[in-house]
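Priority: medium. Attachment 1 of 2:
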């Protein structure tokens, strides 16, 4: 058993050196061999104790080499004119098939939780651009990653967007029109990513909060631009991309994020000018919905929920800001809590993602049409809430079948026994994720 483990390790190290070979055929075969060996000797062998000693744990250096290989050999923009002259259709199909196999081999390492999920950021960022060629593979990888750990998946999506933003800022030769087009493309990708969180904000609460927290930190780091003293932070424009995810925050969580943003920006809100507009835009997106929902609520409902609302606000003041200091899970090692939650959840399934993409009328990575923007069906949710309230009022005069409490308190006790979701302010500090 020990000799076999040693032989597998030596074979992987030999293949990793061949990844730098001058021959494309040798590099591709070495890459495929490494991926197959990592899958065969993955942590799944723990299910059989006698084979647990054969598990191979890939190093961070090896994971980085595999991720770089995918960027160099799969996500390649071919020159259409040269392709028409030098190759026929059958050759193009053969090359595409080979690249898809390489990408699938790497994605298996992510889906089986063999390598860290952050390595998928280099794949997710090409979702729109290479949708025609690899859209199905990337979509499946995204769905499976969300099943492993929602928070790690959300962080990986944010990392993909920050990588694209850095690439846009580091491009040589500043062109305002081209930069605006690139920024719009990143915003569109962020909007597509936001669709993957679905409509159930309670189930994705932690994941969306983690994405906003790290997005704010990236936007405000560093606070001062060495090339423009007194100007905005160099990455402040990323807040405009982060705005696409504001609609996925609960109303109470928006207040918490807003307080964290104001505390981090300090006196930046006093500045005016186009360079500071991303900060104002993002801040406005966090303020939306504070008064509209209250105006649209019927008077009877508003009076019945007044006491409950006051209690929510009192607890909210105590818990604001705690989410910033909550423990962060180790990447690639999802907690038991999230495994159980994801196993019973249908949130963010591949089917849901596919329906969302169809509604956006995706025509392809390079020439697709931009479809209508989806909005959560808020009217249907409000109507269902009103129906629930009216039903509860009709049953108010009946004795409670669930508990022995007085009839006047039967409605509240039955709600607790039925296990209704608590929509109160979230205690960020008590989260395991």
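Attachment 2 of 2:
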């Amino acid at each position: 058993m020990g000799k076999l483990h040693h032989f597998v390790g030596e074979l992987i190290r030999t293949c990793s050196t061949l990844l730098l070979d001058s021959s494309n055929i040798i590099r591709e075969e070495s890459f495929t061999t490494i991926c197959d060996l990592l899958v065969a000797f993955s942590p799944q062998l723990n299910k059989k104790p006698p084979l647990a000693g054969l598990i191979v744990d890939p190093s961070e250096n090896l994971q980085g080499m595999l991720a770089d290989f995918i960027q160099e050999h799969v996500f390649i923009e071919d020159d259409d004119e040269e392709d028409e002259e030098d190759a026929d259709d059958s050759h193009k199909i053969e090359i595409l098939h080979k690249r898809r196999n390489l990408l699938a081999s790497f994605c298996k390492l992510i889906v089986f939780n063999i390598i860290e999920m952050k390595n998928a950021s280099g794949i997710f960022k090409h979702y729109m651009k290479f949708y025609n060629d690899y859209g199905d593979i990337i979509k499946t990888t995204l769905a499976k990653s969300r099943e492993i750990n929602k928070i790690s998946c959300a962080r990986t999506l944010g990392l993909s967007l920050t990588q694209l933003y850095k690439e846009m800022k580091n491009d040589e030769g500043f062109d305002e029109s081209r930069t605006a087009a690139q920024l719009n493309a990143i915003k569109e990708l962020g909007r597509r990513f936001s669709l993957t969180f679905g409509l159930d904000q309670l189930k994705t609460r932690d994941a969306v909060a983690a994405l906003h927290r790290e997005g704010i930190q990236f936007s405000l780091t560093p606070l001062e631009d060495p090339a423009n003293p007194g100007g905005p932070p160099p990455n402040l424009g990323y807040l405009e991309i982060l705005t696409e995810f504001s609609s996925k925050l609960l109303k109470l969580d928006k207040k918490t994020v807003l307080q964290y943003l104001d505390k981090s920006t300090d006196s930046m809100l006093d500045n005016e000018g186009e360079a500071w507009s991303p900060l104002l835009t993002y801040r406005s997106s966090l303020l939306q919905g504070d008064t509209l929902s209250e105006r649209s609520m019927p008077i009877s409902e508003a009076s019945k929920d007044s006491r409950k609302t006051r209690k929510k606000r009192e607890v909210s003041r105590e818990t604001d800001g705690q989410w910033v200091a909550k423990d962060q899970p180790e990447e690639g090692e999802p907690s038991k809590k999230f495994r159980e939650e994801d196993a019973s959840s249908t949130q963010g399934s591949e089917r849901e993602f596919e329906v969302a993409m169809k509604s956006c009328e995706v025509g392809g990575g390079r020439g697709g049409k931009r479809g209508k923007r989806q909005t959560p069906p808020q009217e249907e949710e409000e109507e269902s809430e009103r129906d629930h309230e009216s039903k509860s009022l009709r049953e108010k005069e009946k004795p409670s079948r669930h508990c022995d409490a007085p009839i006047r308190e039967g409605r509240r006790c039955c709600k607790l026994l039925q296990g209704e979701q608590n929509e109160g302010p979230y205690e960020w500090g008590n989260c395991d994720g």
